[in-house]
Amino acid sequence: MAESSREADVAFIEALAELLNAKDLAELQVKREYGENDALNVRVSKNAPAPAPAAYAPPPAPAAPAAPAPASGSSDAAASTDDPASHPGAVTSPMVGTVYLQAEPGTPAFISVGTAVKEGDTLLIVEAMKTMNHIPAPRAGTVKRILVEDGAAVEYGAPLAIIE
């Protein structure tokens, strides 16, 4: 009986791989619960080039000219220039996906540097698995930096913008 269960699991995994290709997905993860201590956890992914780290390369570059700021003796300034994600006003990505700064091509961007935002205002959109997820401002303030480019890939926890 265990052999037929194993064959069913193999067939299930093969079906997931076919679904991955048919829907042009990069990754798919499924957990099947069979009983209290019996489960199948499957993750199927394609070997794809990793453009996401390249999306992070531009943000550190602007931080380098701001290096003289720590000379003023402010440890907060040093933290914000070294790693945008550690800045207290950083808004990070809640998911892996593609960033869009406007609702659709040709329309104005949701935010720009200097824009005043209220808590809950849409800052940008992260598309994940063909779903457009509006990313709200976690607090009211002014947009000081936008750390991503339109159409860039982002990972979970990546800094998107700085609001002070």
Automatic annotation (TrEMBL):
<keyword id="KW-0444">Lipid biosynthesis</keyword>
<feature type="compositionally biased region" description="Low complexity">
    <location>
        <begin position="69"/>
        <end position="83"/>
    </location>
</feature>
<dbReference type="InterPro" id="IPR011053">
    <property type="entry name" value="Single_hybrid_motif"/>
</dbReference>
<dbReference type="InterPro" id="IPR001249">
    <property type="entry name" value="AcCoA_biotinCC"/>
</dbReference>
<keyword id="KW-0276">Fatty acid metabolism</keyword>
<keyword id="KW-0443">Lipid metabolism</keyword>
<dbReference type="Pfam" id="PF00364">
    <property type="entry name" value="Biotin_lipoyl"/>
</dbReference>
<keyword id="KW-0275">Fatty acid biosynthesis</keyword>
<dbReference type="InterPro" id="IPR001882">
    <property type="entry name" value="Biotin_BS"/>
</dbReference>
<feature type="region of interest" description="Disordered">
    <location>
        <begin position="36"/>
        <end position="93"/>
    </location>
</feature>
<keyword id="KW-0092">Biotin</keyword>
<dbReference type="GO" id="GO:0009317">
    <property type="term" value="C:acetyl-CoA carboxylase complex"/>
</dbReference>
<comment type="pathway">
    <text>Lipid metabolism; fatty acid biosynthesis.</text>
</comment>
<protein>
    <recommendedName>
        <fullName>Biotin carboxyl carrier protein of acetyl-CoA carboxylase</fullName>
    </recommendedName>
</protein>
<dbReference type="InterPro" id="IPR000089">
    <property type="entry name" value="Biotin_lipoyl"/>
</dbReference>
<dbReference type="GO" id="GO:0006633">
    <property type="term" value="P:fatty acid biosynthetic process"/>
</dbReference>
<dbReference type="InterPro" id="IPR050709">
    <property type="entry name" value="Biotin_Carboxyl_Carrier/Decarb"/>
</dbReference>
<dbReference type="GO" id="GO:0003989">
    <property type="term" value="F:acetyl-CoA carboxylase activity"/>
</dbReference>
<feature type="compositionally biased region" description="Pro residues">
    <location>
        <begin position="50"/>
        <end position="68"/>
    </location>
</feature>
<feature type="domain" description="Lipoyl-binding">
    <location>
        <begin position="88"/>
        <end position="164"/>
    </location>
</feature>
<comment type="function">
    <text>This protein is a component of the acetyl coenzyme A carboxylase complex; first, biotin carboxylase catalyzes the carboxylation of the carrier protein and then the transcarboxylase transfers the carboxyl group to form malonyl-CoA.</text>
</comment>
